[in-house]
Amino acid sequence: MQRAATRKFSSLLFGTSPEAPSGVPATRRTMLQSISNAIDITLTKDKTACLFGEDIAFGGVFRVAEGLRQKHGENRVFNTPLCEQGIAGFAIGLSAIGITTIAEIQFADYIFPAFDQIVNEAAKYRYRSGGQFNVGSLLIRAPYGAVDHGALYHSQSPEAYFAHTPGLKVVIPRGPIQAKGLLLASIRDQNPVLFFEPKMLYRSAVADVPNEDYEIPLGKAEILKEGKDITLIGYGLQLVHMEKAMIRAEKELKISCELIDLRTISPLDRETIIDSVKKTGRVLIAHEAPKFGGFAGEIATIINENCFLHLEAPIHRVCGWDTPFPLVFEKMYYPDEHRIFEGIKSTINF
Amino acid sequence: MLSHIRRCFSFSQKLTFTDPNALKIPTFRCIDENGLPLKGAEVYIDAVSKSLLMDIYKTMVEVREFDTIFYDLQRQGKVSFYMQNTGEEGLQAGTAAALDKDDWICPQYRELGLFFWRGFDIQLASHQMYGNKLDLGEGKQMPVHYGCNAAKIQHVSSPLATQIPQAAGLGYGLKIRGEQNICVCFYGEGAASEGDAHAGLNFAATTKAHTLFVCRNNKYAISTPITDQFASDGIAPRGVGYGMPSIRADGNDVFAAYNAVKESRKLVLSTPGPVLLEFMTYRVGHHSTSDDSTRYRTKEEIEFYKNVDNPILRTEKFMMHAGWLDFDPVQYAKDVRERVLKAKTVAEHIEFPKWTVMFSNVYDKLTPELERQQEEMKKHLEKYGDKYHIEKHEAV
Ligand SMILES: Cc1ncc(C[n+]2csc(CCOP(=O)(O)OP(=O)(O)O)c2C)c(N)n1
């Protein structure tokens, strides 16, 4: 899990968001350090907030919690036994009496033993009790997605399973500045939130992250670049590949693309998507997860229901193939700039 | 039914709690850390002949040398990942030797010795490390995720503890088919905390499955020490809690390992019903090549298990006392090392599987949609093949 930092700077992706403070003191931070900083702010301000998970005491396998136990004490930053259903259930219990709870699942691939606790319990805690109880102070973080050598069980993108569950919010940051603002908003949101962190960007994404406490609102997409010929919709790591494809498409196809980072998968910012597609008439959606039943299908349906008469080409999805994530074929598996470029081209030439 | 249910429990007028330490299970051991036979263990030591001990030794050394070479290769960036078995070779080889060749094995991932013993050899393991076209797993999983149907070893998979209830089912299947064989399930003391571990033990106990649970208590789950993993007397008492005979043995003593497994196996078949065996051992290496264990444990601790309570060294010392050490361990290791290096060289020059293999074995045959996706990829590769190093894959 310790990999040499290959720093790829992209001012478009890892630059700021309109909701983040500007012109304030900032520190150059990786996404990992930015997430750590948001947790540190939470533990500092909220004296009963807890951070826990497998191997958290020594800092976590990705080192997100580095130094936090020393600073905030072993009662609030601690190891759990190796049991994801235990982590989720324990976290729900803490949140049920209002304690701010940040639980780590070591890899999103290992969230499935906790599925019942998250989907049947956390998601329905409020609804089933007529609003008497809730676990709004619960946040579950998990690194997700490709790392280029993770194969079947260190690469998955499980967002669609959770987005299908009413009562949960699902958030995915794309860069260090967004990670901090979205994480602080997710922790304070009065609903259980799943926060999936693109682990490939942990060390490679770097930005000047404002030092102060700030939030980026949930349920709000961000237009990274305006354009008029095609709308490109993505989130997390996929935006890196989409940006490369976009640069090539704008040059070679002489078009202008609009690039949207959803930031929150659920609840989804329908307006931003609909307005954009009405303007461009063409759309491509990308994600790493398999295509069938993937989240792109939901977005496509919303576009179809709301923009039908504006569409000039079929909605195009570029996704992981409908197979598990296979080691020696990884680069062929997930959508990359070449597949996305070809997708843009066929949509434009339709 | 009523009397049956009532008979299960008895009454008392004493308001007493059962002390959590009431069941302190000792560790069965035959030789000490200097390889000297312990009093009372003669019968167990006699059960291991010189030639059997040599076979056990051979497997341990193969594992150690394979570990050393592939760990180094990962450090040099030649393979993407590795997990060492260092410190646990004894329980692996000792267990392997005590089983029948038709017993099934459900592994976790740190059980390479079982593979070697059963003919999934250094060459096959090397193919898996490179994910080449001779990897039985078709290059799909990360390194060290071995599996071999011919050797009756189910495939390693990363999600922890999933094999535990599966082993209960497999062992039950062996019983209802009337086979005099068992299923051996390996797992770490960390994985023992998963819900699946509890489910597996309870299922095996209630169905009286032909299952032997072997927990490798190597003291760490990545960085998490056993003190954060459980508050009980280790894992062995859990078997008792679920109603099965349970034993704790010294995993770094090949005589203890061999005899404990032999007896456990007999008990599983004669009861019939599951047994839990907890091996006390130590993970001498880092958790994996992604880990640096000096961040969370001391050098002294590691050194003790590397240089003193080490299964290979203890076996060598025993051989010396017994007058069985009629070879040079250094030369022996060198020869094994040569074999590993040769196998590695063969494996690294073999191409990856055909790219179409990506779509195979999702189902028994390609679905129409997968055929369509494969066709889409084919067109894409015709244009962009060089971007994916298609030349490194076997031609379609
Ligand atoms: C369900 C699940 N959760 C977390 C992990 C990540 N993980 C891989 S190995 C490991 C520690 C396992 O420790 P243990 O079972 O004691 O076996 P050991 O590595 O010590 O042999 C963890 C937490 C995983 N693979 N699967």
From TrEMBL, chain A:
It is an enzyme of class 1 (oxidoreductase). One of its GO terms (molecular function) is branched-chain 2-oxo acid dehydrogenase activity. It catalyses: N(6)-[(R)-lipoyl]-L-lysyl-[protein] + 3-methyl-2-oxobutanoate + H(+) = N(6)-[(R)-S(8)-2-methylpropanoyldihydrolipoyl]-L-lysyl-[protein] + CO2. One of its GO terms (biological process) is branched-chain amino acid catabolic process. It holds the Pfam family Transket_pyr. Its cofactor is thiamine diphosphate. InterPro entries: THDP-binding, Transketo_C/PFOR_II, Transketolase-like_Pyr-bd, Transketolase_C. It comes from the Eukaryota. Keywords: Oxidoreductase. Its EC number is 1.2.4.4. Residues 29-204 form the Transketolase-like pyrimidine-binding domain. This is 3-methyl-2-oxobutanoate dehydrogenase (2-methylpropanoyl-transferring). It comes from Blepharisma stoltei.
TrEMBL record, chain B:
SUPFAM superfamilies: Thiamin diphosphate-binding fold (THDP-binding). The keyword Oxidoreductase applies. It comes from the Eukaryota. Pfam families: E1_dh (PF00676). Its EC number is 1.2.4.4. GO terms for biological process: branched-chain amino acid catabolic process. Its cofactor is thiamine diphosphate. It catalyses: N(6)-[(R)-lipoyl]-L-lysyl-[protein] + 3-methyl-2-oxobutanoate + H(+) = N(6)-[(R)-S(8)-2-methylpropanoyldihydrolipoyl]-L-lysyl-[protein] + CO2. InterPro entries: Alpha-ketoacid_DH_E1_comp, DH_E1, THDP-binding. It is an enzyme of class 1 (oxidoreductase). Residues 57-348 form the Dehydrogenase E1 component domain. The branched-chain alpha-keto dehydrogenase complex catalyzes the overall conversion of alpha-keto acids to acyl-CoA and CO(2). It contains multiple copies of three enzymatic components: branched-chain alpha-keto acid decarboxylase (E1), lipoamide acyltransferase (E2) and lipoamide dehydrogenase (E3). This is 2-oxoisovalerate dehydrogenase subunit alpha. It comes from Blepharisma stoltei.
